[in-house]
Amino acid sequence: KGQKKLYDISFIGSPKAPRRLTIDFLKIYLPDLKIKVWGEGWNNELIKPAYYRDFNLAVAQSKICLAINRYDDIPCYESTFSQRLYMLAACEGFILAENIPGIDQFFKINPPEEAEVIAWDNLKELTTLIQHLQPNLQNDQQEAFREKMRKRARKRILKEHTYAHRLEQIIKWAKEL
């Protein structure tokens, strides 16, 4: 909270496909933006992972936080997202998330004035969203909009998506067996 925004766009995570493609695409098509990644394996560079306080600091210093899904040979990855999306919201990140099936069951994505997360479907749409936001990143009215969205996302996380909530849900399911 109160951190100076050092990065226009950030991503925290490994460079699994399509994450690397997304970041490389953005670096080519939006070269004037400061894009920062944290995680092991990016271009064989020693890029420090962001855990715990470092994660919170990375989010606080970023104007836009990307939530990019990963796709391995595990089919469930195509319709789920990692805890990172929850963590970004809990840290009050302004999130542009890949629009995966079911995301709207966990976060409000429409209409914009009520959204907790902005979802995108493809790289063209992501680039257009960022280009729309880019000139407004310093605009006070846009900052107020982003601040409201960040607060709504955090409130939703604390109300519905903590580990305690998941444990209660698992216990409930176990009792139903």
Describe this structure in words.
The protein is α/β, with parallel strands linked by helices and 177 residues long. The protein has a single domain (7-176), classed as Glycogen Phosphorylase B (Rossmann fold, 3-Layer(aba) Sandwich). It is 41% helix and 13% strand. It contains six helices and five strands. The protein has helices spanning 19-29, 53-60, 83-90, 123-133, 140-160, 163-176; strands at residues 7-12, 35-38, 62-67, 95-98, 118-120. The chain has a five-stranded parallel β-sheet, with helices on both faces. Strand 3 (62-67), helix 3 (83-90) and strand 4 form a beta-alpha-beta unit. The model has no long low-confidence stretch (mean pLDDT 86).
Number of strands: 5
- What is the helix content? 40-55%
Question: Main beta sheet: strand number and arrangement?
Answer: 5 strands, parallel
**What would you give as the CATH superfamily?**
Glycogen Phosphorylase B
Query: Averaged pLDDT, please?
Result: 86
Beta-strand percent range: 5-15%
Shape: globular
- Model regions low in confidence, pLDDT < 50 over at least 5 residues: none
Span between termini: 44 Å
| Cα-based radius of gyration, to the nearest Å | 16 Å
- Total helices: the number is 6
Q: Remind me, CATH topology?
A: Rossmann fold
CATH architecture type: 3-Layer(aba) Sandwich
Along the chain, the helix and strand elements come as: EHEHEHEEHHH
Look at the structure and give the CATH class: Alpha Beta
Number of domains: 1
Structural class: alpha/beta
Query: Order of strands across the widest beta sheet?
Result: 2-1-3-4-5
